[in-house]
Amino acid sequence: MSIRLRLTAWYASILAVTFLLVGLAIYWFADQSIYGGMRDRINKQVDVMRITADYNFLDGIDLNVGGRGFEEEMYAQFVNYVNGTIKVTPNLGGIQFPYPKSTDQIKPGFKHITVEGLPFYVYEGPIKIKNSNKSIGVATIGVYTGKEVLFFTQLKNILTLVSITMVLIASSIGLFLARKSLRPIENVIRAANQIQRGSDLSVRIKRTGPNDEIGQLTDTVNEMISRMEIFYRELDESYRAQRRFVSDASHELRTPLTTIRGNVDLLEKMWGPTGELEKKHIDEAMKKEMSLEALQDIAGESRRMSRLVNDLLALARADAGVIMEKEPIHLRPLVDEVIRRAQFLPRTAEWITGDLSVLDAIGVNGHKEYLQQMLFVFIENAFKYTPEGSVTIDAIRHDEQVGIRIKDTGIGMDREQVPYIFDRFYRADESRGIIAGTGLGLSIAKWIIDEHYGSVEVVTAVEKGSTFIIWLPIVSSFHPTLE
Length: 483
Fold this sequence. Notes:
Elements: H1 3-48, E1 49-56, E2 60-67, E3 74-80, E4 85-88, E5 109-115, E6 118-128, E7 135-144, H2 146-197, H3 213-271, H4 284-319, E8 327-330, H5 331-342, E9 350-353, E10 363-366, H6 368-384, E11 390-398, E12 401-408, H7 441-451, E13 455-461, E14 465-473
Helix pairs in contact: 1-2, 2-3, 3-4, 4-7, 5-6, 6-7
């Protein structure tokens, strides 16, 4: 038998004995209280009775009962052994109490009797001639106890039912408490087995008990598992990030490197010592034109690789946990400078400046260069994916946050793609291979927004354009100065 069952059995046994003793005590006290009162009533009735014996030449001795009258609920019966007559009180309704056959069988005292299914509590005693010990009859005086018998039957049933129910409930609770008390040990064993198998390091032992030896053991094991899980997750995340970086970077660098290598091979064939293209009878003007196109391709791909490397360095700083040095900045001059410089970016859409009046007296705690870089990412994206139409920038305010809104009427995107657009190297399927880009700009922008404790809201639909709202917390005590 397990420790849980043994503890439960002992607990249930002790509780059952306790309930039995308490139930017997309650029953005994109720019996003494109720039937003790009846005995007092019967004794008082006996004290006020006057029984006299009259001599009758025909019948011998007649019994006469005098004194004060009987109570309404008091019943009496007098048996005369001399002439064999029986007298009963009128309220007895023709019922006769059982009585001894002779005076020798009379046993004075109180007792319970049942007559025709009716319960009574009676006192039975001999009737004696005055100044003589000779008994000539027997008197039976009692009280109807139907209500009392019903009360004690119900009391016995209630005590029995309550005792059994409470023992069962207490046994169940005791088994639960025993299991709960010993559960920390089971949890320690289970956790140790899982650590041994290396299946799940996220499981923790629940600490619900006091700070005893088991609790201290639980804390120690939990701390050990937590450190192992952190180390394992960091190592696994590092491996996954490294594999993802190598895969994505290789994919993005493959195209420009292939283009550069192809153009270099072309130049070597045209101007190299072997002069393979000389045999093709290519004239000097065509060679110069082809060389210029190759150099332009090389320069363009070199710029693309340079931007990619810069973006990767920015993300590397983010991964390294670089902390930006922030200070209160007046937003309006910063946004105005971004708007001025943005009009010189390559674009085919109209560049519209909306209402920026809410920025006049608003400042944020941030880094100026990074905030400008973040805004340029969203603006360049809007220009890139808006072949025709317009790109609008304005500002709004909500409570203690300011929102810089950049809205375009470009190609938009599917709403299902929104959760992924800030992932590194992610590009919508509609734009991949058609519109140039590395897929790192929005990742960098999201990192800058997070470092400024802000958020970004995206509203988009296919062929209906996209709207980005960059929310930044306002510096409440900021007062702009004239520049």
